[in-house]
Amino acid sequence: MMFAGMMAVAFAIDCVLGWPRAVFAALRHPVVWIGALISALELRLNAGTPARRRAMGGLTVILVLTAVLIPALLLQLALPDGLAGLVLGGVLAWPLLAVRSMHDHVVAVARPLARGDLVAARQAVSMIVGRDPTKLGQAGVARAALESLAENSSDGIVAPLVWGVIGGLPGIAAYKAINTMDSMIGHRNDRYEDFGKAAARLDDLVNWGPARLTGLLFALASGRPGRAIRVMRRDARQHRSPNAGWPEAALAGALPARLSGPRVYGDVIADEPWVNGAAPDPDSQTLARGLALSRRTMALAALVVLLFALP
Question: 193: which of 3, 45, 144, 286 lies 20 to 30 Å off by Cα?
């Protein structure tokens, strides 16, 4: 109950404040600190044979988690009992959620897209996805934003909440470290294929349950859970990711819209299968509906956390 209460406080603070620029300028952000450590270790350890790279990647995971878990555990143990500890723990967990920032980044795409300003919408969507924005039309921009909304609802909100409810500050901090390692070194390319393997596999593991829970929450919040769940059960496993397909397919079924599909990364065309392929392409109105559904879904997630916090 204490951990769930802390996560409820963190959720509320982040909804209201996000991570203010003044705070970022003064303190940066915990993910920036974690990223700096990962980069330093990768530069020193990612060399040699494939076997050595895999071993050093595993060592990197251990070192990063140790560096994150020890202070998080000490802070958790130092929290006072009662309401003061609950509120202080929530303040400490607050930076590790991304409720406001995720919503604001997608709104930044939706507004120019609704005005018909494709150039500005492309610029905004380039901040949240890795594909080439110059190759995207209106449907491509809306699709990219919706996919980011679905995936980050799981990675940036539901999964940190789940691990925070389970393990308090150590739980949410460890999850954020694992997710950051995956985003930085868990890529399938010549540089990271071996070194990032341990980080990528661990990220798949810790996101397995939260991704499916996020899909279920999207379905329940949609008002038409049957359709969303049918699409999720049918198409989620076709996704290139073992986890991202679940919230994405649920969102695609709820709207409805077709998501995923072929996309361009630099000079490479990724021929991905469609999710909910028989549905229409998304547009600016679909993106607006997706944002509204996301807000209802996050409210439902917060309600679930509050229920765990009740005595």
Answer: 144
How far apart are the C-alpha atoms of 209 and 68, rounded to whole Å?
22
> Over the chain, what is the mean pLDDT?
94
275, β-bridge pairs:
259
* pTM summary value: 0.94
Whether 254 and 219 have beta carbons less than 8 Å apart is answered as yes
> Which positions ≥6 away from 17 have C-beta within 8 Å?
94, 100
The residue among 259, 294, 305 whose CA lies nearest residue 279 is 259
What is each CA distance from 285 to 113, 142, 219, 250, 253, in whole angstroms? 9, 9, 19, 18, 16
Residue 270, pLDDT > 80, answer no
**Nearest-5° Cα angle at 108, 33 to 235:** 85
Q: By three-state DSSP, how is residue 97 classified?
A: coil
